[in-house]
Amino acid sequence: MGVDVEKRGIESLKRVTDDLYPEAFCSVVKDPRDPESGLILHADGAGTKPIVSYIYCKETGDYSWFSGLAQDIIAMNLDDIACVGGTPEAFSDYVAFNTRLLERELLLSALGSGFSKVFQLLKDLGCGVLFCGGETADLPDIIRTIDVSGTVFGRVQLRRVITGSSIAPGDAIVGIRSGGRCRYEEKENSGMMCNGISLARHALLSREHLRKYPEVGHDLEGGYYGKFRVDDFLPELGQTVGEAILSPTRIFLPIILDILKQVSVKALVHNTGGGLTKSLRLGRNILYIKDALPEPDPIFHLIGLASGESKREMYRNYNMGVGMEVIVRKEDVEAVIGSCERFGVGVQVIGRCERSNGRNAVLIKDTSGEYLFQAT
Question: Is pTM beyond 0.85 here?
């Protein structure tokens, strides 16, 4: 249920792009006006997270539950282009919604408030991004509730593009936490980010929500089989179930920019679709051994228990508490950790790189066993 983490079929589109580095985390094309510069135009969305905002809004009448989606789509885009060393310059949003079920002015006001807050934060952190507006689409015949996405434009000097091609045996993997609270955040983050939301809402949320609002899903066997309402407070989460799912994606950009000032980074991995197997696409003939992972945030334990998903699938679908991976030489580890600690974000060495037997692989070890994933 939810995203295809292998993104089958995407190669048909990648073949027709002007991407200079197909192996890199996101596309970089040559600037036609500057042969030494690369351009990045990257698009991403909040997945099915807006459906949870919709349920909370319908339950409470409060449209502010949509405001956090602004940070989600900004973070999902900015953190991705940071993985190739890109610096964002401008951002545009796209909001498509069902005007029969949502009040336009209240919805756009909530999203506008969210955008204003996040762009001011980025400016305060010294990495301001121009907001160019975007598009709102009234699509009641297509959209059941709401879809929110965005596009970022950025630049990178071609000699500084981070492609992962220099990853070598002996390199260290440093994991930056997706949960907790860092210096520039107002409250604790559950660590969810924007992936695996479909499984989370179906496994955790009660079928009562589907009965009241049939537009939030299809009446398929097994849908919304959880035992919680969105506003149920759980002590282990320290917040309601809905708040935990809606916890906005952490913006790693300022941390990454600081790291890049300190050391030469081999690769950066934003653990979105594909979870802790995302590094499979980077480097050649590398075995990524992740045997020192932090304890996953409580939301992941809750989802795993409620859904019955295997630990293997949980590692493949979720970041499990590690939102960003930094791959560097062993001697650069302390500098990376120092940068993260200055921002008050959780960080630790989670593993190392070794030579594989012909294709990339990820080996995850924890107290429950070992899980091997191989590139196709």
Answer: yes
